[in-house]
Amino acid sequence: MYKKLFLATVMSVATTLCAHQVVTQNVGTNKFEVKFWAHGDFSPYKSNQLIDAKAYDESLKEIKTGINYHFGENKTPEVLTAAKPAIIASAFDAGYWVESDKGGDFIDGGKNSVKGVVFSTSRSVKLGKTYFSWNQNLVSPIGLKLEVIALSNPFKLKIGDYLPVLVLKNGEPIEGIGFEVGKEKSKSVTNKFGIAQIEIKEKGLNVIAAIDSEQELNDPNANTLLLQSSISFELK
C-alpha cells in the first residue's frame, strides 16, 4: 500500500516540476553563469540555491573552480574556472513541494512551514552537466549521484538524429529511467544496460534530463527526494 502511495506521489510531483533544469552558459573568458531553465526560459533564483559547480577539462581532469555568489546583490552567481572547461557540472536546490489540504505549492522550509494537513513533501534537487566541447574521454563518469553521459558527439547531431545516453546511479547503470527532453516528457527509457536513445528535435539549447526519485530519510522536511540530472549543449 505504501509503495502505491509513494509512486502516486512521485508521479504527481514529477509532473508538476517538469522542464525545470540547470544549465551553464559562457559569459566571458573562463567565466560562466549557472541558469535555472524553466519551460524554455530562464528564471531568477536565490544565490544560496546553487549548491555546487565543478569544471573538467577534455581529459576529465578537474579544473580549479570558484563561485562568486553575489549574495545580497541581486545578481546571478558567476562560476570562475582556472582554465577552459569541456564540462561544467552543477547542483541546484529547487526547494520543497508540499501537498496539503490547501493544495500543492512550493513552500520555503517544507512541511515545517505548513499549517493544516500535510499529505506529502518532496525536496527537488537538480544536477546539470553542460558540454562545451567533445572528445571520447567524456564518456567516462565524473561521479554524480545520478549522472547522464552522452555516448557520442552531441555537437554533430542534426534534427531527427538520436543521441545514445548512459544513465548511472551511484556509479552503476540503472534500468527503467525516464527522461524529459526540452519541455516534453520523452517516451524513451533506459534499458538493462542503462542506455537510451534520445531523439533530437530542435537546434539551439538542448536539455536532456533523467528523472529519478527515492524515499527521503535524511531530511525531516521531506518524505521524497526528486532527483533530476541533465546534460545540455548548444546545437547550431
UniProtKB/TrEMBL annotation:
Record keywords, A-Z: Signal
Domain of life according to the entry: Bacteria
Stored InterPro entries: DUF4198
UniProt source species: Campylobacter porcelli
Signal peptide extent: 1-19
Protein name: DUF4198 domain protein
Stored Pfam families: DUF4198
Keyword Signal: yes
